[in-house]
Amino acid sequence: MIPIHETFYSWQGEGVHFGRPAYFIRTWGCPVKCKWCDSAGTWHPDYAPDNIEKIPEEDLVKSAKATHCDFVVITGGEPTIFDLNELTSQLEKENISRHLETSGGFEIKGDFQWITVSPKREKLPLDNNLIIASELKIIVDGEEALEEWGKYLKPYELKIPIWLNIEWSLRDNKKIKEKITKFVKEHGFPYRVGYQFHKLFQADEMDTNSKPNVPLGGNLDLGY
Q: Three-class SS of residue 72?
């Protein structure tokens, strides 16, 4: 049984699988606790729900299968603080693809076909998790972030897409957008410009099972 914040059916708004229908399983709990987190309801005491349900893996798989999707995204919070072997095993039996979204800072316990690592300076990824990652998602939360992460990643010589996503509360910051654009044009592969397109569509909210987004960055009164 895994503590679950929410489950809902939407589509992947980021990365290589952009636009693909997906069932999201969002676990509750995160020891990383980024100050600009856009899923604060999964860990922040001011926004945590009154009741956090622990759901058997079998029930999670049944709910995913009922949507007829072939693609499940297990995210958080930080999902890898839990043993996900049973969940991924049952998903595999139903021929449902398993996609993990993680900070990479903890051992991955489960069998995944796609792993998105989003490094956080508060808890840097384990070397092995960077090596097995399918793609990286860098959150650009300031004007110096590109140089910081570029220097950090250079020794790894990764040959996978590295998406540069502007932190959502800064999405109208012209200087940061210009920096991302210039960085990608100068460096080319593996760097790519990323964005949270599902938020433009408010796609997740179209499923009534999805809980209201509670980000720490930006202006909460305006919903971001």
A: strand
- Which domains, ranges and CATH numbers included, belong to the chain? 2-135+196-217 (3.20.20.70)
**Tokens for 9?**
């059916």
30 and 43 in contact (C-beta within 8 Å)?
Answer: yes
User: Which residues, 6 or more positions from 44, have their beta carbon under 8 angstroms from its beta carbon?
Assistant: 33, 37, 214, 216
Please state, in angstroms and rounded to a whole number, the distance separating the CA atoms of residues 39 and 61: 23
Residue pointed to by tokens 């489960």? 110
Q: How do residues 57-79 score in pLDDT, each as one tens digit?
A: 999 999 999 999 989 999 999 99
What is the SS3 assignment for 102? strand
Report residue 193 as tokens.
Answer: 């410009």
Rounded CA-CA distance 140/155 in Å is: 20
Give the DSSP H/E element, type plus range, for residue 48: none
**β-pairing verdict for 53-55 and 2-11:** antiparallel
The SS3 call for residue 100 is strand
The residues that bridge with 120 in the sheet, in sequence order, are: 123
User: 224 pLDDT exceeds 60?
Assistant: no
Q: Please state the length of the chain.
A: 224
In this structure, what token pair is assigned to residue 189?
């592969």
Buried-state track 27-53, b at ≥16 Cβ within 10 A, e below 16: bbbbebebebbbbbbbbeeebbeeeee
